[in-house]
Design a protein that fits this description.
With 522 residues, this protein is mainly α. Helix 3 runs antiparallel to helix 12 and helix 4 crosses helix 5. It is globular.
Length: 522
């Protein structure tokens, strides 16, 4: 009885700490929107402002519940599966399970359904979803084999992006260049809040079981590899698809982004029920997969399974609240803000950076990543410094995306030099920073980016470049996925320089002491 009370007290303290983290994450961007609504730049009606504030409350409780569930269930399941499969030492079983898992969890990812609906006028939803799922499954197998055989991540990334840009050249040659932005965006939407904690823990579990000198950096990389598969899948579809010209009106109706304040309750219930179905499908596939693996390989006690079950329930409720709030409140507000701020392009660029900087704080999977990095590296990479690097990177990516919309040029003008520079940095920085940086790209481009920043860009583009919505508004998710590769690796270079300066300082102290019997303690 006493133990149960202590467990409940600990659970309450943990949830309260998650609430405080969520407040710190969500309140800044909410305050910016609320403050700006009282300026001449743009104004929100009383109903819109009330709905936005209500959505913010849902977002706070949703993030707190999700983070608690991710710690209690998703991470635990991933680590258990990773270590159990590794101990089998049967590559055929490991590869088969990973391929099936990659396809299943991708098909159920909520953000992917949004992309497939937008392209339904060009490609059948099932075809697109299955192709992307297969891409994730194949690259998940590649990532697992990388861990098992202790292969460096950089050569795999180099080869993969050479293949990506070869397909880009072929697509441009075929005249399907307006498919490019969506191809790169697909890599960001498939690594959502459900899959990221599981994949990261899977890598940590496998790497810890195998061990070795480079176990820490070897545990990262699965998320980034699973982001490459969808890009290749959509590029291949674009190359073989007979449609060479895509009309924006085929893809989405801008009226879908407008706030329906007069019929709010009906709209809220409709989205809420829809998200219950989406999240339930996603989590059910992962839980069933875990239970099968547990029955065959792991054999966890009932007490542990019950604890994981409560964690899954917490993650489920949190994610439903989060996604409902994002779609009901943040999506229409982001679209309207983008439309209104388009009348002031200079302010649009500045506000885009602020929004990008603050949006990262509210992405659930980002907190999972930073916590896992600090845990795996035993505090060598601080959570706060990594979070700051991510905020700056994403802020710059949104700002550059708005500049691209204003001047109307292809997203490849950013992506090609950006990826070349980031891969070049990977040769110079410690390997663990490269692995974390490439994982960060997939994690940063989460549901709030899709539900707030993408509508912001679409709203802005609908005024500045109304005939170029497909080419200019899309690509923002790809930019969010790319810039952390650079900022996190630059963080690695700074750490190397600091370490060298520290060693130089120690050497000077040692060389300045003439007495050989002095004991020096650092």
């Amino acid at each position: 009885m006493k133990e149960n009370k202590e467990e409940k007290l600990l659970a309450f303290k943990d949830y309260w700490s998650k609430i405080k983290e969520a407040l710190i994450s969500v309140v800044p961007i909410s305050l910016v929107v609320i403050i700006l609504s009282f300026t001449p730049l743009f104004n929100l009606s009383g109903e819109e402002l009330a709905l936005f504030i209500l959505s913010t409350l849902f977002l706070i409780f949703g993030i707190a519940l999700f983070n608690q569930g991710a710690d209690q269930a998703m991470s635990s399941m991933g680590e258990q599966v990773g270590s159990a499969l590794t101990r089998t030492k049967k590559l055929i079983i490991i590869a088969s399970v990973m391929l099936i898992m990659g396809v299943l969890i991708t098909i159920a990812e909520p953000d992917l359904s949004v992309l497939s609906r937008q392209l339904s006028g060009v490609v059948k939803s099932f075809t697109l979803t299955f192709a992307i799922g297969l891409g994730v499954g194949i690259f998940l197998v590649v990532g697992v084999l990388k861990i098992i055989f202790k292969i460096e991540l950089t050569p795999i990334i180099m080869f993969s992006y050479l293949l990506v840009f070869a397909l880009v050249a072929l697509m441009i040659y075929k005249g399907s260049g307006n498919f490019l932005a969506i191809s790169f965006d697909s890599g960001g939407v498939t690594t959502g809040p459900i899959t990221v904690p599981f994949l990261m823990a899977l890598g940590v579990g496998m790497s810890a079981t195998i061990g070795g000198r480079n176990a820490k950096e070897n545990s990262f990389g699965l998320v980034t590899l699973c982001s490459i598969g969808p890009i290749l899948a959509v590029l291949i579809i674009g190359c073989i698809n007979k449609t060479t010209s895509l009309d924006s009106s085929q893809l989405f109706d801008l009226s879908d982004y407008d706030l329906v304040a007069s019929d709010f309750m009906h709209e809220f219930l409709e989205v809420f029920i829809s998200q219950i179905g989406n999240v339930a499908l996603s989590l059910t596939l992962i839980v069933v997969f875990f239970l099968i693996i547990n029955f065959i390989f792991i054999h966890l006690p009932i007490r542990k399974l019950i604890r994981i079950g409560f964690g899954v329930l917490s993650a489920f409720i949190g994610l439903v609240l989060f996604l409902t709030a994002a779609e009901i409140g943040y999506l229409p507000v982001g679209f309207k803000v983008g439309k209104l701020i388009a009348n002031y392009p200079v302010w649009g660029v500045i506000i885009a950076f602020i929004f990008g900087f603050l949006t990262v704080l509210a992405e659930p999977a980002v907190h999972v990543l930073t916590s896992k990095v600090e845990e795996v590296t035993s505090g060598a990479i601080h959570r706060k410094s990594m979070l700051m690097a991510l905020c700056i990177g994403v802020g710059l990516s949104i700002m550059l995306s708005i500049i691209r919309i204003i001047f109307d040029f292809p997203v490849l003008y950013y992506l090609i030099p950006g990826y070349i520079f980031s891969i070049g940095l990977s040769i110079l920085v410690p390997k663990i920073y490269t692995a974390i940086a490439f994982d960060s790209g997939g994690v940063a481009s989460g549901p709030l980016t899709s539900s707030f920043m993408l509508p912001f860009a679409i709203g802005f583009c609908s005024i500045v470049q109304p005939d170029r919505l497909l080419e200019d508004a899309f690509g923002i998710v790809a930019m969010v996925a790319m810039t952390p590769l650079i900022t996190i690796q630059l963080l690695g270079i700074i750490s190397v320089i600091r370490r060298q300066n520290k060693f130089k300082g120690r050497f000077k102290i040692i060389s300045s002491i003439e007495d050989d019997e002095v004991i020096i303690s650092f």
